[in-house]
Design brief:
The chain has 2 domains: 119 residues, Beta Polymerase, domain 2; 129 residues, Four Helix Bundle (Hemerythrin (Met), subunit A). 49% of the residues lie in helices and 12% in strands. It is built from 12 helices and 6 strands. It has a 6-stranded mixed β-sheet, sandwiched between helices. α7 runs antiparallel to α8 and α7 runs parallel beside α12. The longest helix is centred in the C-terminal third of the chain and has 26 residues.
């Protein structure tokens, strides 16, 4: 006589001999983050330099909520950022840190301290001064909407700053609209993209595969990602910040093409990836421009394509068209 159980890919479900349900690895991770958040709250309450602590990201969202792979993102408001960055003994109040490093904040503001605690629990502490936090709410509501607009949870709020976020009605759970580019920003993005297609081709011909691949699969893809966001927003879809969940909202044709737009560390593959990336941008650019009411610089694209074709090696000569 057996018992019902099934595998979920990480651990067993079902029931044990005592009738109690098995605990999966995912359950343990959920519990670990719950305890970690409790300790973050206790630390923030006890330290007078911490004025607010607010959870953002997937662990505060109802749309695309956290799964077992998600980290914990905490915005910390303090006038003593240097102490928390440089003197990290406070981390022991939260857990057992294994790896920690300082990163820039992609949304602006102060530094982020990214910490991997025991058990693989990952916390991103984003620090802001009260002055910067107030300025963000007053002068950059679009940036604030990206950070807080899909949801947040207040852990500690000693001065009422976090309540001010709620007063701005940024956390309704509605899509956080990315700022629409102006004609100048759109033209700059396109010009920089096509300029660096030629740059990539030159470094490929020089034999600098590392640089060429880095530009093709790094900078050029980031420009394509930005264009995809603008295109999705202009078409009434909901693009997430910096390519999150891109597979759900990006143009289906570009998504299919991306499967051939990345290269291994091989010059012939980088040439193929470069050509594919150019085709995807060349297809999407005019359509997005039309949706936004802008002009698309087709002459810049044509010039870049001509130059890249001339750089590409061929059997019988310097290049092939």
């Amino acid at each position: 006589m057996g018992h019902d159980s099934k595998a979920d890919g990480r651990g067993q479900t079902g029931h044990g001999a005592d009738g109690a349900p098995h605990r999966t690895d995912a359950d343990l991770i959920v519990d670990g983050y719950a305890r970690l958040e409790e300790r973050v709250t206790a630390w923030a309450e006890d330290d007078p330099a911490v004025r607010s602590a607010v959870v953002i990201g997937s662990r505060a969202r109802t749309d695309h909520p956290a799964d077992e792979w998600a980290d914990l993102d905490v915005v910390v408001i303090t006038s003593d950022i240097g102490r928390f960055i440089d003197e990290r003994t406070w981390l022991a109040r939260v857990g057992e840190p294994k790896i920690a490093f300082v990163a820039g904040n992609p949304g602006g503001g102060g530094p982020e301290l990214r910490v991997l605690f025991a058990g693989g629990l990952d916390v991103d502490f984003a620090f802001m001064t009260p002055e910067h936090a107030d300025g963000l709410m007053e002068h950059a509501p679009g940036v604030a909407a990206i950070a807080f607009g899909r949801g947040f949870r207040i852990l500690v709020d000693k001065d009422g700053w976090a309540q001010g976020i709620a007063d701005l009605d940024l956390s309704t759970g509605e899509p956080a609209q990315l700022p629409k580019p102006d004609a100048g920003a759109f033209a700059e993005l396109c010009s920089e993209f096509w300029y660096h297609t030629v740059w990539t081709g030159k470094h490929l011909r020089r034999g600098e595969l590392w640089w060429a691949k880095g530009c093709c699969d790094g900078m050029l893809k980031e420009h394509l990602r930005q264009l995809l966001e603008w295109d999705a927003a202009a078409a009434g879809r909901d693009p997430w910040f910096r390519g999150r969940f891109l597979e759900e909202w990006a143009d289906p044709g570009v998504l299919a093409g991306l499967r051939k737009a990345f290269a291994r560390y091989d010059d012939s593959e980088v040439w193929t990836a470069l050509a594919t990336t150019m085709d995807l941008f060349g297809e999407l650019g005019p359509r997005t421009a039309n949706r936004l009411g802008f002009e698309y610089d087709s002459a810049a694209e044509a010039e870049a394509r001509k130059l890249v074709a001339g750089l590409q090696p061929s059997v019988g000569g310097r290049g092939t068209v």
